[in-house]
Amino acid sequence: MFPKSKQIRWLVDCDSFYASCEVFLNPKLKWLPVCIWWDIVIARSYEAKPYGIKVWTPIREAKKMLPDNAVYLKPRMLEYGKISKRLMEYLAEKCTEVEIFSIDEAFFEIGWYDKMYKMEYARMMPALKNAIRRDIGIPVSIGLAPTRLLAKMFADINKPYWECIALDDITIDRVLKTLPLAEVPFIWPQTQKKLVWKCTTAYDFKALDYADVKQMLGKNWTKIRCELNGINAMQLWYNDHPKWIWRTRSFNPHFTDKKEEVRARLLSNIEKAIEHLHDVKMSTKYLRLYFRTKDFSRFGIDTKLPYPTNDGLQLTKIARNLFEQISFDGTLYRTTGIFFSDLSVTGHVQESLFSYTHKPTLDSKKISDIIQKLNKKFGRGAVHVGTAKPEKEQKKDFIFMEV
């Protein structure tokens, strides 16, 4: 029998979720290298990974690396969402306290299930995996630990179709000593640099003094340390409101140094990002333009707004003003994009005593909302904001609006 724990966190993590959904929808894809892409690879099946395909690999490079039988598909987020909903409802029927972490991950607490089902966790775990595979059609990995963070780490370490039970300190420490610091969620590269002389593994970070972590990194990282030490200190479950929104697109199959082409692609990204803002009923206070050159160097230019907004006309105007600061001196660009962060739920904004030239007027906000409604009714791109024409003319009329 395994040692008992007052709280036992399980994490179900779907294996290569988007690609697994496509295989479920079309069983003929089973055992084939599958890439889901939007100019870059955003997901790939486990059959594609041995060829060196990674997320963010440009699709034209992926096609050179993969064999002739590889399959390339555009994402079908609506279908993936339906499968995700079925999985979460399935878990809610069988488990308690289900906490959705992302579209393909969920925590739940079933510390008393060994008594209810009269079986050890080592038997329960593969039984749950097989039941999900049979009833939902998606393969999953499962981690079982005293805290959410440990459960997430342990579900990830040997995917796919992995299961890991680590409830006692000896087993937890043995696993943590094998994991590089980079494998700990939320410890990003900049934080790793600060700890390079003190930590090389997840176990090293767990062993750090609480006061030292707080002084070096801040309070948030003390919560990570607590989680590694078996103390529930973080709420990791999924929030319907995203923390950021971004849209990027490359100039495949060719690069460009033409200002008008880069501007047109950028405006297209902005339209999609603004549409997403409206869909989730949020506003942004931070806007960043993103560029990537032919030699893979990256740079951006950004601005922070004094108030949150989702006014498409004003956000487009601000982005265009930032774009004019970019010099075109023969540099070949491969990718451009837009990034919104510092998001908040759209609502009433307190008037400021100080005016701001970009503050949206009531008419501007109404026009922006009407544009979103028209695009929803007649299809994306029915109304375009900006001076650049759509990259590909479609067989329908367009409305162009100067900002």
Give an overview in words:
With 403 residues, this protein is of the alpha+beta class. It has three domains: 9-165, Alpha-Beta Plaits (2-Layer Sandwich), CATH 3.30.70; 169-228, 5' to 3' exonuclease, C-terminal subdomain (DNA polymerase, domain 1); 244-401, Dna Ligase, domain 1. The protein contains 14 helices and 15 strands. The chain has a five-stranded mixed β-sheet with strand order 5-6-1-7-8. Strands 9, 10, 11, 12 and 13 form a five-stranded antiparallel β-sheet that branches. A three-stranded mixed β-sheet has the order 3-2-4. Strand 2 (34-38) and strand 3 (40-44) form a beta hairpin. It starts with 8 loop residues before the first strand and ends with a strand. Mean pLDDT is 81; it is low at 1-5, 348-362 and 387-403.
In short:
With 403 residues, the chain is of the alpha+beta class.
